[in-house]
Design a protein that fits this description.
Structural class: alpha/beta
CATH architecture of the largest domain: Alpha-Beta Barrel
Shape: globular
CATH class of the largest domain: Alpha Beta
CATH superfamily of the largest domain: Aldolase class I
Strand order of the largest sheet: 3-4-6-9-10-11-12-13
Number of helices: 21
Strand content: 15-25%
Oligomer: single chain
Radius of gyration: 26 Å
Distance between the termini: 48 Å
CATH topology of the largest domain: TIM Barrel
Number of strands: 30
Largest sheet: 8 strands, parallel, barrel
Length: 673
């Protein structure tokens, strides 16, 4: 069991305790030495064989944002050294990623115009780059080499050079961006000269015994960019130049193909790493992207597709994912929502995790258990995201917690998400809490509705986490038999007709549209995804879709899914368009009728949108009926999640409020001890 994933391995001179690497993630806390050290140390204790830091810019013009570290600047040294020392003290190994954003950099960071092989703008950055001259190129090569030497001096065990995801070195490889006709561009041999020069200079400066990993692009997913043959030629060239391992990434940030969102099936990019592995023989190859469990990693390694597996976001969701190898039911699984991690990173904000809001805040939420004589009895009412996390955090601090849930399962509205295409792993979050809460001693009472606050007398503190209820729109006809609420559809599997109109186009409305328009196919989900993205064809040359509903989305406002995260919204809307979902924006609802819904457009024109079923997804309201009575009990209490505020409610906020409330209550209860 997990014989391959837990086997020792080697990258160059570096011996590693297993084959699971924590991939690079920019955390936005790179200037906070204690926070950065605590974050990485917890992952080292959790079993990561090698931790790769977030990208450390080799110079200012190559920064991905203001919060990046700068390996060649003295001001970054203390935080980086602290991170390396903390990982070593925890028994782990750590590599620094050397980074240059190229044309993906932002002028707003430091007032510098981005630099690139040629003056070709990108869809990722609003700032057009300038073409690097010979002196700049030579200086940048030196910056990479100096960065590697400095990393070694600061105590890092290796470096990883970022040459993937459309950043500078990847840009030099691509004819889309590299339009030069000199030593650094033209045919592919010349387009490889810059990354190969970087590797040689690192070797000359940091030493041949210092492990160097290159993160390369298995496929740019950009029409007209580097070809598959060129990708493998590049991998072979790096092997001949003495690289110690290749970490295979996928796609550019500009690509119209999603790569890391929940829509992307797990393991779908492994064949690209396998192709590199076949091209480089015994050189260690690392597979990455959308591998979120040790069982999935074991399959990759056992099949010979790679020698190591890199997991990034899974280590945000659970720092101890490797240490829990024998108890996978206790692993908090990454659900690829991107909301608290990648979305925040792109805004240069501190990164965390929806399902583990402690990530990146380990020092602030140490969760040291209180002495037994100071443990208090706490009731948490409602087992949605806020309630589950609050109960977990309180119990982790040693309090005696009882969790009351009116339904027969944990999760609240979070249960609906697992029904949506690509969101099956959201159910893994519920599985985690269903196992973790009893392990921590939480008494879970299912099918237990608290109708009156007096039923909670005897508790030292109370948390109200009763969530939301669907909002009933003020429109005639909601009583008709062809009307269904989103909750009835997703939680109680209500039948709908072939033509469906969805009233409301926020996040829930979009999810419902995706659920109804997706249909079933005769291919596995990986094959279907690659086919729909134009990357492969099913074995018989055709893909059959059945059960797809005709869906219309409508909204009073003018934006569909406006609060869906930046890195996910475009991909979901693209999928809806491909499925034929129609959109009606800026409408006024007149009435639901037997054959559909009658609306008026922005110009006052009346029309009927034909539908067999109308699904109401018009928002939510607070479910806080217990609050007035709760205030009269005279004990400390908190209101969290949807019960606190239903406006623009999302699971990130709910999980965070659960954690924060536990911290606050613990402090308040301690004051009464």
């Amino acid at each position: 069991m997990l014989a391959h994933a837990l086997a020792a391995g080697r990258i160059g001179t570096l011996s590693l305790r297993n084959r699971i690497i924590m991939g690079s993630m920019h955390m936005g806390i790179e200037h906070d030495a204690p926070a950065l050290a605590a974050f990485y140390a917890e992952r080292a204790r959790g079993g990561a064989a090698l931790i790769v830091t977030g990208g450390s810019s080799v110079n200012r013009v190559g920064a991905g944002g203001r919060n990046y570290s700068f390996i060649n600047e003295p001001a970054s040294a203390s935080a980086l050294r602290a991170a390396a020392d903390a990982v070593h003290d925890a028994g782990g190994r750590i590599a620094l990623q050397l980074f240059h954003a190229g044309r993906y950099a932002l002028r707003s960071s430091f007032g510098l115009q981005p630099a690139a092989p040629s003056a070709v703008p990108s869809r990722f950055s609003p700032d057009p780059p300038h073409a690097m001259d010979e002196a700049e190129i030579r200086e940048t090569i030196g910056d990479f080499a100096r960065g590697a030497l400095r990393a070694r001096e600061l105590g890092f065990d290796a470096v990883e050079v970022m040459a993937s995801e459309g950043y500078l070195l990847n840009q030099f490889l691509s004819p889309l961006v590299n339009q030069r006709d000199d030593f650094w561009g033209g045919d592919f041999e010349r387009r490889m000269n810059l990354p190969r020069a970087v590797l040689r200079e690192i070797r000359a400066g940091a030493g041949r015994d210092f492990p160097v990993i290159f993160r390369i692009s298995g496929a740019d997913l950009m029409t007209g960019s580097t070809t598959p043959d060129e990708t493998l030629r590049f991998a072979a060239s790096l092997r001949s130049d003495g690289v110690d391992a290749l970490n295979v990434g996928i796609g550019w940030h500009e690509s119209s193909i999603p790569t890391v969102q929940h829509l992307v099936p797990g393991g779908v990019w492994v064949p690209f790493a396998a192709a590199v592995k076949r091209a480089v023989g015994d050189l260690p190859v690392i597979a990455s992207n959308r591998i979120n469990s040790l069982a999935a990693a074991e399959d990759v390694l056992a099949g010979g597709s790679a020698d190591f597996v890199s997991m990034a976001r899974p280590f945000l969701a659970d720092a101890a994912i490797v240490a829990k190898a024998a108890r996978p039911e206790l692993v908090n699984t990454c659900i690829a929502c991107n909301q608290a991690c990648i979305d925040r990173s792109l805004l240069d904000e501190p990164v965390s995790c929806m399902v583990n809001p402690r990530a990146g805040r380990e020092r602030d939420f140490a969760e040291t258990p209180v002495p037994a004589d100071r443990a208090r009895r706490v009731a948490v009412v409602g087992a949605g995201p806020a309630g589950m996390e609050c109960a977990r955090a309180l119990a982790a601090r040693g309090h005696r917690v009882e969790l009351f849930e009116a339904d027969g399962e944990l999760g609240g509205q979070f249960r609906m998400a697992r029904e949506i295409p690509g969101k099956r792993d959201f159910g893994e979050t519920i599985r985690y809490f269903a196992n973790e809460l009893p392990r921590l001693g939480v008494a879970v009472h299912l099918n237990r509705r608290i109708a009156e606050a007096r039923a909670l007398r005897g508790f030292d503190a109370i948390v109200l986490a009763t969530g939301v209820v669907p909002r009933a729109p003020r429109i005639a006809g909601t009583h008709l038999r062809n009307v269904v609420s989103y909750a009835d559809l997703l939680l109680r599997d209500r039948d709908v007709g072939e033509r469906v109109a969805i009233l409301g186009a926020g996040g829930i409305g979009v999810d419902v549209a995706h659920y109804l328009s997706f249909g079933e196919s005769d291919a596995d989900e990986g094959t279907r995804f690659l086919y729909e993205q134009g990357l492969a064809a099913p074995p018989d040359g055709a893909l059959l879709i059945s059960g797809r509903k005709r869906v219309a989305l409508m909204r009073r406002g003018t934006t569909i899914g406006e609060h869906i995260g930046k890195t996910t919204r475009w991909a979901v809307l693209r999928a809806l368009r491909a499925a034929g979902v129609e959109s009606y924006l800026g409408v006024t609802y007149d009435a639901i009728v037997a054959g559909g819904i009658r609306v008026r457009d922005a110009d006052g024109r009346e029309r009927t949108i034909e539908a067999d079923t109308v699904v109401i997804a018009a928002g939510q309201e607070r479910n806080d009926a217990l609050l007035p009575e709760l205030r009269e009990l005279g004990v400390p209490y908190r209101v969290v999640g949807g019960a606190k505020d239903a406006a623009e409610l999302n699971a990130v906020r709910a999980f965070e409020e659960g954690l924060f409330a536990a911290q606050e209550l613990s402090g308040e209860l301690a004051a009464y001890a």
